[in-house]
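Chapter summary example: a protein plus FE2/S2 (inorganic) cluster.
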Amino acid sequence: VISSRLYHENVIDHYNNPRNVGAFDKKDPNVGTGLVGAPACGDVMKLQIKVDEKTGEITDACFKTFGCGSAIASSSVATEWVKGKKMEEILTIKNTEIAKHLSLPPVKLHCSMLAEDAIKAAVKDYQSKRVNSSTSSDAAP
Ligand code: FES
Ligand code: FES
C-alpha cells in the first residue's frame, strides 16, 4: 500500500481497488486490444475495449498493467472513462485529464500517457480488425 501523503486519494483508491482488471478474447471481432510499453521504465499496459458494432459505442473495457501504482490507477480510470462512449470520443481522452484527475506529479505524467496510448492502440486494433474481416468476407466464395 502506497503512502497517502505522497499520492492523491483517487490514485490510492484506483491502485487498491482497480476497476475492470481482466482480459477479453483478443480474437473476438468486437474487441480492440491496445498493448503499449513505456521505454523509460519498462512498464507495460494492456487495455481492451468491447465495441457495439452498430452504434460504435464502447460497451465494456478491461486492462492488465504491469507497472507502477500510477500506471495501474491511470488504466483503471481509463477503462471507467471509455465505457458508454463512442469510439471518436474516447480518442479525445487526454493523458493530462487522467493525470489531473489523479493529481499525478510531473514525474508520473508518462504513466498516464501510457493509458492514452493504450486507448488509441485499442481503437486502432479494433478498426484494423473490421477492415480485415470485411475484406476477407468479400473474398470468400
Ligand atoms: Fe475513479 Fe474518477 S475516481 S474515475
Ligand atoms: Fe513507468 Fe509509471 S513509472 S508507467
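Key point: The helical segments are 9-16, 69-82, 87-90, 95-102, 109-139.
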